[in-house]
Amino acid sequence: MRNVLLASAGMLVLSAFAPAMAADMAARAPYVKAPPPVAYTNWTGFYIGGFGGYASENSGNPKMEGGFVGGTIGYNWQAGNIVYGLEADGGWADVDASITTLGTTVKSKTDALGTVRGRFGFAVDKVLFYGTGGYAWIDNKITASALGITASQSNFHSGWTVGAGIEAFIAPQWSIKGEYLYRSLGSENYFGVRSGDLNLHSVQFGVNYHFGGPILAKY
Questions:
Q1: What is the DSSP letter of 43?
Q2: Which of 47, 58, 79, 193 lies at 20 to 30 Å from 153 by C-alpha?
Q3: Please, what CATH class does the domain formed by 40-218 belong to?
Q4: For the chain, how big is the Rg over CA atoms in Å?
Q5: pLDDT tens digits for 121-177?
């Protein structure tokens, strides 16, 4: 009986101090805060946009030069920091040059241009550095006027383009970009005479809208 009483007394003492001991241990336990979510940019997906720029002929006297404006559509894929994709653009142009000699005025004017290009670049979060290249085209017209008589002929020139650019997100679904393109367009016949290749340097700036919300949370 004495042993039973001693054991019972011990249990009572432990039960009295157990809540305090548990509270003390909980107070001493280190608190580990969950890491905050890390924001990152996912470039994968469709996008559309608009652009405008300026083009100048590589050589010639006088040189063809002028502005252009148009629209863009494309799709990106991303693997790690590598971003690659396809892009097509087209627009209206006012790139021209004219010369008058012996009472005859000849004017060459490009009134539309575009490209279909691949893009390959390296993303640093919201900023993409890329190279680009592919197919280029223009719609060009030559007009000759003399003695009150005017004749004109239009041709579609095809060729290639290569360049580089930078694109950066300024909002969750909006980006801005700037790029340089060198366009080399093949020769065509005008009034029975070959025009020679037309090579243009162009600088253009654009705004793109990306579908799907590219700013995500990574835990």
A1: -
A2: 58
A3: mainly beta
A4: 34
A5: 999 989 999 999 999 999 999 999 988 889 999 999 999 999 999 999 998 899 999
3-state secondary structure 123-151: EECCEEEEEEEEEEEEEEEEEEEECCEEE
Residue carrying the six token digits 């190279």: 131
CA distances from 31 to 23, 24, 26, 85 (A): 14, 14, 10, 46
Q: Domain spans of the chain?
A: 40-218
Separation CA 1–CA 70 (nearest Å): 100
Assess contact for 111 and 92: CB atoms under 8 A: yes
- Measured from the Cβ of residue 35, the count of other Cβ atoms closer than 10 Å reads 7
With beta carbons less than 8 A apart as the criterion, state whether 136 and 183 touch: yes
| Token code pair at residue 56 | 């100048």
